[in-house]
Specification:
34% of the residues lie in helices and 10% in strands. By secondary structure, it is of the alpha/beta class. The longest helix is centred in the N-terminal third of the chain and has 15 residues.
């Protein structure tokens, strides 16, 4: 499995080959040079950036483009120490599941009868074809949304476009208005788009809980011959 090697020098990044081909134009675009300069300046100023550089593109490395079955869109990485590792909603082993993920687990139990695990590590989903993509791939420690507007959004827009262009049908799980706007262009004649409020405690009770997105996603994938996702997670990470 590959990852980013030169964390601030994005032109030299190593990336899963399918994504590297699909996104080649992005790495040559002027905005990427500006993003590179921004990240370098932040590090030179002594600011802590999450996740670590080798995990900026972790979601893409774990879920190659030709394996994508489901897309879940997040916003920013977690900005607390030890939380972010490149997958939206996920945290590394040993870190307690954040509130939004707790509500995702509640819906999994409600929808599919799955007992919540004691961890928040979602790598098992990613390895099955669930692209856990944040819109912005880095953040300054303790400063939510601090890296918005620096270029990551354009890059991840290109990721979503690349998935939309796939011949194989994909399920897009769009939780919250931010994700719904980001993927508004998805071709619903080929792909399944399921929308609901964000699983945050502030909004989950307005329609996320009870949305049954996980069973609907699997029914669509099975109907299209792509195989269901095993949404259960190991009890221990």
């Amino acid at each position: 499995m590959t990852g980013a090697t030169a964390t601030a020098d994005l032109k030299d990044v190593k990336l899963e080959q399918g994504w590297k081909t699909a996104l080649a134009d992005q790495f040559r675009a002027p905005y990427m040079a500006a993003l590179k300069a921004f990240l370098r300046a932040e590090k030179e100023a002594g600011k802590r950036i999450f996740p670590k550089g080798s995990q900026y593109f972790h979601a893409l490395d774990l879920t190659p483009i030709d394996k994508v079955k489901v897309v879940i869109l997040g916003q920013d990485p977690y900005h607390g120490p030890g939380q972010a590792h490149g997958l939206c909603f996920s945290v590394p082993p040993g870190v307690a599941p954040p509130p939004s993920l707790v509500n995702i687990y509640k819906e999994l139990q409600r929808d599919l009868g799955l007992e919540p695990p004691r961890h928040g590590h979602l790598t098992y989903w990613a390895e099955q074809g669930v692209l856990l993509l944040n819109s912005v791939l880095t953040v300054q420690a303790h400063e939510a949304a601090s890296h918005r507007g620096q270029g990551w959004e354009q890059f991840t827009d290109a990721v979503v476009h690349a998935v939309n262009d796939k011949v194989e049908p994909v399920v897009f799980l769009l939780w919250g208005s931010y994700a719904q706007k980001k993927a508004a262009f998805v071709d619903t004649s080929r792909h399944l788009v399921l929308s609901a409020p964000h699983p945050s405690p502030l909004s989950a009770h307005r329609g996320f809980l009870g949305c049954k997105h996980f069973s609907q996603a699997n029914a669509f994938l099975e109907e299209k011959g792509r195989g269901a996702i095993d949404w259960s997670l190991p009890k221990e990470a």
